Amino acid sequence: MLLDKSGDKIKDSGWIEVICGSMFSGKTEELIRRIKRAKIAKQKIKIFKPKQDVRFAKKKIVSHDKNSLKSKSIKSAKKILELSTKSQVIGIDEAQFFDDAIVDVCNELANSGKRVIVAGLDMDYKGKPFGPMPSLLAVAEYVTKVHAVCTRSGKMASYTHRTVESEDLILLGDTKKYEALSRKEFFKANKVKAKKK
Ligand code: ADP
Ligand code: MG
Q1: CA 10–ligand 2 middle distance (angstroms)
Q2: Alpha carbon nearest to ligand 1 atom 20, residue
Q3: Beta bridge partners of 15
Q4: Is 88 within 8 Å of 115 (Cβ atoms)?
Q5: CATH number for the segment(s) 15-146
Q6: Where are the beta strands (DSSP E) in 38-185?
Q7: What spacing in Å lies between the alpha carbon of 93 and ligand 2's midpoint?
Q8: Which residues hold their Cβ within 5 A of ligand 2, which is an ion?
């Protein structure tokens, strides 16, 4: 029998799944698809997202294709533990906005036998790893990287390019502020930007 740090029993049925990729790559759609299937199997589900993400709705996760599911907005990752004691499956969207505590929280949930499905941006608009995502990817049992379509070349896109002027790491927005780009188009676009400065 395995014991965790506090000496509690670790049940062996829990795990962490991470869905990552750029904006518009279908992370939220994939999260919704998995949760809907768990619902068909009559599992107890809770979905969380960070309070910062108020783009489409406060109490829902919404995909760019207008699919949605009810969710709870929370300020700190720790709150997830309190609110999901009775759930079997935990969905977390926009995980990149959470504090680093999200990693321990996901481990604790999985250790107590729960299925944890986390979706988030793996890179920010500068092409750098985003917040706690690298650590979440490291501790997950299953990792899925989804891709968008490059709006300039039609090829596979894994980068999020900011089309407006702002240096803020967090700038909520949609197709008016961001576009999905391939590696080639992303680095080309940023070179052009750097030259203009
Ligand atoms: P994410 O959560 O990764 O931002 P969503 O699941 O919300 O993505 O949205 C995916 C949907 O976004 C696609 O099904 C499509 O309708 C729409 N979309 C808009 N722009 C693009 C793009 N450049 N590439 C792919 N899908 C796009
Ligand atoms: Mg999304």
Answers
A1: 31
A2: 24
A3: 115
A4: yes
A5: 3.40.50.300
A6: 45-50, 60-62, 68-70, 72-74, 89-92, 115-121, 142-145, 148-149, 156-157, 159-162, 178-181
A7: 7
A8: 27-28
- List, chain by chain if needed, residues with CB within 6 Å of any ligand 1 atom: 21, 23-29, 63-65, 148-149, 151, 180
Instruction: Locate the ligand 1 atom nearest the alpha carbon of residue 151 and give its number.
Output: 23
Give the nearest ligand 1 atom to 23 CA: 4
Q: SS3 for 111?
A: helix
| Ranges of each domain in the chain | 15-146
Confidence of residue 168 (pLDDT cuts 50, 70, 90): confident
| Tens-place pLDDT, residues 103-150 | 999 999 999 999 999 999 999 999 999 999 999 999 999 999 999 999
| pTM for this entry | 0.92
Task: Classify residue 38 by burial, with Cβ atoms within 10 Å: 0-12, 13-18, 19+.
Answer: middle
Question: What positions carry a catalytic annotation?
Answer: 94
